[in-house]
Backbone:
């Protein structure tokens, strides 16, 4: 059953046509890696699903509810900001640049939204935060500030922070691209553990081995649209699409 | 020059110091919130403020900060105290202190507007996105995530402005507000003796010293984290 469905998404940044009719869907519990050359629209697609960008054309549905619907002129028409925020709160997001709140300690980062948005009491939010910190292996950093952590630790906190809102879908926007090579493994391991929990996950990544290992399905994007989708083996091991082959060769060479 | 003369002079100027402090605190208490509101008005891109209403609001706020930052404070004091009375045919007549409060609040709020605007704008868009992705609405995001971080950035310029404010209060003497400098000046011209000026300088130094210490402490309190 489709929990995320986007149809014919178009997005312009000024004159730049970034998404050119991208269709995308994710089933409940599915783990999807989105790969493709830079500038192909991967991150934009992810950000449209979470309402961080506004689609110009096309429709977006989360668990059957439209947040954007195409009107008669073919323009995307959105629900009110409040309604969209509510629906999108079922999606958690992990950013390339972590975006932790620097003025709050690690545990406060995890407690902020559960208390302020979900209305949990301080003690319940703290308990939950402790559990999540244990899950990402950072219990001993609970009172540290983000600035005192390594990139890998910050990203693990960011994952825990997103999980604190009990999302049904997790979006990862190049979660390891800003990390030093030796810190990538710890973040990927946390994501792998999540994958074992049947969470729906959409991961934009350049880590091909990771994508191959973790994904139920791999989506290849190029030039603003989805050009191929299939099992990891179909897309990453024996691609019949020449553009995928060219892309993978470039990555291997680099 | 005897001890009695000195202590009388100090007491007289200290009376003026009370007035100076009143102008100082009234200005800070009202101009800081006003500055925050104007800064948010300038930065607001809410749906209701798109198009003409937003352009109008930003135009008004831009004109306000331009006029108050672009003309001398002394001129503004004259205008509020004398000018408004003349323009209104005597219907608007402020007491000297009220004229000083009004002028200082609007003048300093204009500077604070720009300081706060800069502080808020220096917070990266990733913070807004993270807050939104967690389901926080714009108001919560501003209150809990953006403004607390902006405070750290604006503290040094805010300290600067506060020191300026203490010294600017001396301008009130020209519209007959009996603050430190006016009292000191009267003693000096009466007795042809500059000890009153020295005392006034000492009081100003003491006040600015306290302000510097307060802001040093505040900055220390915000030193527990770094933005990036």
Residues:
């Amino acid at each position: 059953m489709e929990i995320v469905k986007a149809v014919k998404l178009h997005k312009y940044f000024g004159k730049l046509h970034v998404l050119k009719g991208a269709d995308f869907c994710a089933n409940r519990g599915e783990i999807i890696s989105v790969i493709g050359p830079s500038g192909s629209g991967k991150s934009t697609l992810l950000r449209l699903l979470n309402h961080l960008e506004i689609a110009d054309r096309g429709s977006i549905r989360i668990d059957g509810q439209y947040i954007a619907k195409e009107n008669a002129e073919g323009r995307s028409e959105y629900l009110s900001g409040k309604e969209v925020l509510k629906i999108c709160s079922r999606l958690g997001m992990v950013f390339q640049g972590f975006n932790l709140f620097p003025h709050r300690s690690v545990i406060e980062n995890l407690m902020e939204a559960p208390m302020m948005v979900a209305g949990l009491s301080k003690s319940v939010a703290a308990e939950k935060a402790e559990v999540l910190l244990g899950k990402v292996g950072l219990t001993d950093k609970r009172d540290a500030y983000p600035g005192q952590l390594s990139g890998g630790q910050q990203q693990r906190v960011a994952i825990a922070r997103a999980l604190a809102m009990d999302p049904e879908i997790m979006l990862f926007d190049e979660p390891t691209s800003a990390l030093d090579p030796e810190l990538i493994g710890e973040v990927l391991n946390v994501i792998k553990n999540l994958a074992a929990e049947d969470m729906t996950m959409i991961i934009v990544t350049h880590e091909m081995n990771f994508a191959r290992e973790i994904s139920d399905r791999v989506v290849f994007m190029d030039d603003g649209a989805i050009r191929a989708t299939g099992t990891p083996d179909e897309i990453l091991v024996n691609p019949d699409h020449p553009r995928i082959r060219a892309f993978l060769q470039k990555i291997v060479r680099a | 020059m005897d001890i009695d003369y000195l202590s009388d002079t100090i007491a007289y100027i200290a009376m003026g110091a009370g007035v100076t402090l009143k102008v100082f605190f009234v200005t800070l208490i009202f101009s800081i919130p006003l500055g925050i509101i104007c800064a948010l008005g300038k930065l607001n891109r809410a749906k209701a403020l798109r198009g003409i209403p937003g352009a109008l609001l930003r135009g008004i706020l831009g004109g306000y900060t331009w006029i108050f930052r672009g003309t001398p404070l002394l001129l503004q004091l004259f205008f509020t105290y004398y000018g408004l009375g003349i323009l209104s045919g005597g219907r608007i007549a402020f007491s000297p202190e009220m004229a000083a409060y009004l002028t200082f609040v609007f003048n300093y709020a204009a500077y604070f507007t720009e300081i706060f605007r800069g502080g808020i704008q220096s917070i990266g868009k990733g913070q807004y996105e993270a807050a939104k992705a967690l389901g926080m609405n714009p108001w919560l995001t501003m209150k809990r995530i953006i403004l607390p971080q902006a405070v750290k950035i604006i503290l040094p310029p805010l300290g600067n402005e506060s020191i300026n404010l203490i010294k600017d209060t001396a301008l009130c003497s020209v519209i007959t507000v009996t603050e430190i400098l006016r009292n000191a000046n009267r003693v000096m011209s009466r007795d042809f003796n500059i000890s009153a000026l020295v005392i006034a300088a000492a009081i100003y130094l003491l006040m600015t010293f306290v302000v510097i210490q307060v802001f040093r402490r505040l900055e220390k309190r915000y030193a527990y984290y770094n933005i990036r």
